[in-house]
Amino acid sequence: MSGTSPALTPPADAVPPVRHPDAPAPGELLGAHYGQCFGCGDDQPHGLHLQARAGEGVSITAEFTVRPAHQGAPGLAHGGVLATALDEALGSLNWLLRTIAVTGRLETDFVRPVPVGTTLYLEAEVTAVSGRKIYSTATGRLGGPDGPVAVRADALFVEVKVDHFVHHGRQEEIRAALNDPDQVRRARAFEVNP
Ligand SMILES: CCCCCCCC/C=C\CCCCCCCC(=O)SCCNC(=O)CCNC(=O)[C@H](O)C(C)(C)COP(=O)(O)OP(=O)(O)OC[C@H]1O[C@@H](n2cnc3c(N)ncnc32)[C@H](O)[C@@H]1OP(=O)(O)O
């Protein structure tokens, strides 16, 4: 069974997403938005280390190899870990819009079990934008781009300002991020969105 709730159906006034002129070219790696991110951070030893690559339009691809630490049942990926990989892939799309956004809603269909050792091939795209609301969809296929669909998700991301993190994040990490010129540059690049 699968389906999308009305909350994830774009309203009538929604418009197609517009790729930012400075978005990375198709084929380029996007890079992590934050080194300690559980989904994409290079400096996060417990993380998924997802690397998203820009596609055409407002789309990305990414690969995620399921490791023993990701198990739920013996030899199978935990559903929450798979949802995290989808969330991260969907979140990385916002880099192509040059918009900072957080997940408001994430609906996931688990279609096939995903064994440890499998590389999940993820594809995600933004389908519509309405004000601060960004609608997107993703699939994860077993083994490669032509493999069977194992997971899919629909999401609503909501645009926020950098202040969202400064206000809500634990001071220790916020202070460290503000003292990291690379992190500040990355965050500010989003804010000059025309
Ligand atoms: C230099 C300083 C360092 C900082 C640098 C940082 C740079 C980082 C760069 C990039 C980071 C990206 C990180 C991605 C990580 C992967 C993705 C995640 O896992 S994110 C974590 C999980 N998500 C949350 O923690 C959200 C928690 N929720 C909230 O904060 C709020 O609820 C929020 C922002 C989502 C909305 O709150 P409102 O007060 O701003 O806005 P309202 O008016 O409630 O919603 C706006 C519209 O969206 C709809 N909406 C909101 N939530 C919805 C929902 N759950 N379902 C359906 N619609 C929803 C509402 O109905 C409204 O729609 P209508 O404008 O009235 O048409």
Task: Provide a descriptive summary of the structure in words.
Helix content is 22%, strand content 28%. A six-stranded antiparallel sheet has the order 1-2-4-5-6-3, with helices on one face. It has 194 residues and is of the alpha+beta class. It has a single domain (13-191), classed as Thiol Ester Dehydrase, Chain A (Roll), CATH 3.10.129. The chain is globular and about 40 Å long. The protein contains five helices and six strands; from the N terminus they run E-E-H-H-E-E-E-E-H-H-H. Its main location: membrane. Residues 75-137 form the Thioesterase domain. Pfam families: 4HBT.
Q: Topology, pairings included?
A:
Elements: E1 51-54, E2 59-65, H1 79-92, H2 94-97, E3 101-110, E4 119-130, E5 133-142, E6 149-159, H3 163-168, H4 171-178, H5 181-191
Antiparallel strand pairs: 1-2, 2-4, 3-6, 4-5, 5-6
Bound molecules: ligand 3VV.
Task: Write a brief caption for the model.
22% of the residues lie in helices and 28% in strands.
Properties at a glance:
194 residues; Thiol Ester Dehydrase, Chain A; six-stranded antiparallel beta sheet; binds ligand 3VV; transit peptide; hydrolase activity; HotDog_dom_sf; Acyl-coenzyme A thioesterase THEM4
